[in-house]
Give the backbone structure.
Amino acid sequence: MIYKPLISRILISVLTFLAFSLSAQEADIDAGKTLFKNQCAACHNKNMKDAMTGPALGGTQERWADYPREDLYAWVRNSQALISKGQARAVQLWNDNKPIVMNNFPALTDQEIENVLGYIDAVYTGKLGGAKVAGGAQATSIPLQEPEPDNTLLFVVLFVVLVFLAIVLARIVSNLNYMAQVQAGNTTAKRKSFSEILTSKGVISFIIFALVVLGGFTTVKNAINLGRQQGYMPDQPIKFSHVTHAGLNKIDCQYCHDGARRSKHSIIPAANTCMNCHRAIKKGSKYGTGELTKIFASIGFNPNTDQYLSDEENLSREDVEKIYKKWIADEYVKDKGSLGAEGERTIEEQWKGIVKALTDPDNGDDKIQGPIEWVKIHNLPDHVFFSHAQHVVVGKIQCQQCHGKIQEMEVVSQQAPLSMGWCVNCHRKTNVQFKDNPYYDTYKLYHEQMAKGTRDHVTVEEIGGTECQKCHY
């Protein structure tokens, strides 16, 4: 009797494993690939081995092997509902990845989920698009982003060919003119030399035309890239680490960028937002007093007295310098025991850093107090309308989908190209979150079709997401 529960568990595990194997064999890998690109690729890494916004998906079936297959289906369709029921695997996944909430996919059928799982397994094991690497692991050949083709060589070759044809044509025309003049009895007619052909009106006109076309093409191509330099990583006046704040301490993006959920702009947080925490945390874990003192000076906070300066407008540069140099010196002595020559150098270096971060001599700005002039990284043209609230609140898009793994960036850089093609492709592939989203209640036909089962998803494109006036009004 003691062994019956154990035997039952073994039988259940074996049967579950067989079910997994049979399901994987029946999976439509091509259909799974399409579903993965449309539904999962925004948050999960395509190599199935590395985490992105969501965890790596490789080995999913093995990790769910001890649980009923229906639980895995339920997890994909509505993860939070399964967590609320206390399902062990669901709770474990939530504890490992919170506060990031997995999107719901209630319209996916069991077979469609099997197709996705089959595709994940094929990529993870190297059966699809993989190559062996050291240690027996597989490296997928599926790129994270399709590279734009470089057609420069093609254009150069085409230009050379056209120039050659123009010269040949000019030579032919010159010979025909010469023959016509001879037949007409012109005894003084002569063939044009090669240099005369090159300097003829027709050749010069063609060269001017070609230069205008080439110049126009280059100008338009470069203009398209203005303001959206992918990989742009400028130095900021204060060394703010998203690794420390968003990664280590898991501060929600919208705590600082609180405009993202209610306006067009996500906004750069004011220094008083920083002070919500840093009035208590006065020394940074990495830079000590070096960077936080810049915030104190900017907002007029005296860390020596834990009070804001009441007469900061009347303080001279020397008075401000004494306040913050005293703070830096006192904290250095607390850490090292004495000041010494090294401490004096530290004080001077940090003060120079404060002056550099908070003043702009070119504009005649010599006041230490004032707003921090952060360098803008993500910049769209003025003729483009983009609303953070529309994407964050209505579309329920995670910040990392456009901004990359921000929680892993010591220095923020532009991850996405921010091109029109990039936005349009996203709208074509991204499914609208219809369930429990009152914003889309007016789309009654789509709701009826989904209820009848004649439609399992609606993309942003299908509700007008690729219409010109949506972004260019």
The longest helix spans residues 152-183. The chain has 21 helices and four strands.
